[in-house]
Amino acid sequence: MEKLVGNLLYGQSGGPTSVINASAYGVITEALKNKDIIPDVYVMQHGIQGALNEEFYHMNKQDKEQIDLLPHTPGSAFGTVRYKMPDFREDETDYIRLLYIFRKYNIRYFLFNGGNDSMDTCFKISDYMKHVGYDIRVIGVPKTIDNDLPHTDHTPGFGSAAKYVACTIQEVAYDMIAYPKGKVTIVEIMGRHAGWLTAAASLATLSGHGPDLIYLPEVPFSIEKFKNDVRRVYGENRQCLVAVSEGLKDENGILIGSSSGLRDAFGHFQLGGVSSKLSNILNSEMRISSRTIELGTTQRSASHLQSLTDVNEAIEVGRRAVKYALKGEHGIMVTIERSETDEYKVTYGKHPLKDIANIERIIPKDMINEDGNGVTKKFLEYALPLIEGHNSPKFIHGMQRFAHFEKN
Amino acid sequence: MEKLVGNLLYGQSGGPTSVINASAYGVITEALKNKDIIPDVYVMQHGIQGALNEEFYHMNKQDKEQIDLLPHTPGSAFGTVRYKMPDFREDETDYIRLLYIFRKYNIRYFLFNGGNDSMDTCFKISDYMKHVGYDIRVIGVPKTIDNDLPHTDHTPGFGSAAKYVACTIQEVAYDMIAYPKGKVTIVEIMGRHAGWLTAAASLATLSGHGPDLIYLPEVPFSIEKFKNDVRRVYGENRQCLVAVSEGLKDENGILIGSSSGLRDAFGHFQLGGVSSKLSNILNSEMRISSRTIELGTTQRSASHLQSLTDVNEAIEVGRRAVKYALKGEHGIMVTIERSETDEYKVTYGKHPLKDIANIERIIPKDMINEDGNGVTKKFLEYALPLIEGHNSPKFIHGMQRFAHFEKN
Lengths: 408, 408
What we know:
Chain A is an alpha/beta fold and 408 residues long. In chain A, 33% of the residues lie in helices and 16% in strands. The longest helix of chain A is centred in the middle third of the chain and has 20 residues, at 158-177.
């Protein structure tokens, strides 16, 4: 195969995870190693918006120490954006601009790091570049705390968010039992359509301190059923710890917790408020004292509690994306495959972007208990290896050190 | 001085901190070392309620491995309670019961671990036992994430909560800049009358990623001033990170965020909701998009992010309490005194409980900036040493290990 000599452009997109910068580290360090084929490595500022506005970080000129801090840095070190690319057959403007930028910077490798919506963007770009015959290798680098990308065993970002959720739930549960009984605590966890992260709360149960009830968006939510469940657990224990997904929907698909009616750039409703709603029901209708904890954005940004397994895989997924691109792959996303061995082991693969864009993988039925208010052993066995190990944070004077880059 | 031979009873009271069990570790291990004077070491279950109900953990019979896990265990490993002891001159019932229990178990050392309200309980018991001439040494062991006990430089529990708040704010701030601008984030932090913990958010600024505005209960809160402050910062940066204390009050002392009107056993209003209220004002009156993060009970239970300085001091405070008791002290609380050296160093002292009970130490004026929306260098210099070091959590299979004891 002929070598495609040209520059690489990498970008981050969608909600940050605590390890998306670990994937950036994998991409950047691997690309910089291949200077004969990839002379220059650029990163877009704020994802595709930076590509359209020609706002790049030139990674060849950055401080190595800062690059080395990436696996400990939360957020999106280069900025992210939620921006929906139109269908190029309907509106070509953005694509013409991108092609102009790609030509100007001789971009021949385009690596895009994100979740479902970002893989849609990535696919559209690969599709357009094929359409106009511009020789480029477009590769998707998966990330999402939601773990809802198809054709991969799991997604970088999920393990660390799951570790944060499980450890926090464990602490909340232990804090709860310190008090005399008589309280329900409802913890609200991120997840729009897929309940993977909420289900991860169950891992705390393995330590002896976990939730009594777990409600996932995969199971139509009934307030009557919820009240009965709480009544039963509370009747037995005089206390109850509940984990709920922010994306809970009733049997008609109506969100339980959507209060604002606002939508984002992709048309998704803004979530939040399901725990308050359920807490109010317990307080007013059942006279049970309850309180809520909304974990919020800390779930995706807790760099101080990363899963080492997740960090290492996130780095490797980034490296593989570069290797696949150099091998001539185009229009694929890197995937993680779990070996069928007793000990947890993964290999890396690839899958066409067109099968991934906009498809959400929800929790399969056999990982949810029959009663629809918890998980099965199969889920625990699936999720536990993903939170193993602790990527010890880099503290200096009590605070963490995060990477900083200058545009140049 | 004559040796007082008899048993020791220790208890935990009030809201947990992530290091109250480190103090328990200090008390228990030090007491167990002195078997000739203290044959048996008991711990009350759920604080004073356990003492009244004769529900004790007999520590001489516990597994050493479990005791060694205490410094890594959040919550209150032996249970806590909020129970207000009456004035014994008005109602002696509880005191007569306690005296009966003390005699039955030959309790001659009573060590009580808590904050303001608990030091009130501790003082009342010491006072009563003097009144009836029962020979016992009553010692207060300080703890509170609120850092509001007087006559001590700071309080065990504050440093770890401050570290959690500062690190989380740092992560939230870094997450915020990942997005294109146009958002205000309001983080709500615990603290009823004293803003120490909210002020700790400022430590994140030292890392380059901190809050733009900080509102403390020490400064009467004006919604108009808040709107002007946000307008200014948002006008300059198109984004703004705000840290608010849940205990904010207006110039008439009315809580900004008290929605429920519920009071606890000590007559304190239940807090919460100030960030939502302020966010609604920004959204509706100023048309600025904002979101809220309520840190909640995770602030006091985050055993995975303890300050090593705080853990070590919490252990030492427990040890000193036993040493003071053995030396014949009675009716005092152990204090921490900071040396006037460049390098951070502390010594330990004592102060009469009667001067501590029910007195809350708020942030002094010279630690709050002139504009009333931030802190001064003096606060940063005060607080930074307290979050130094990381007490690496004990993980096993991705989850933390916490102590467990059997009543016996």
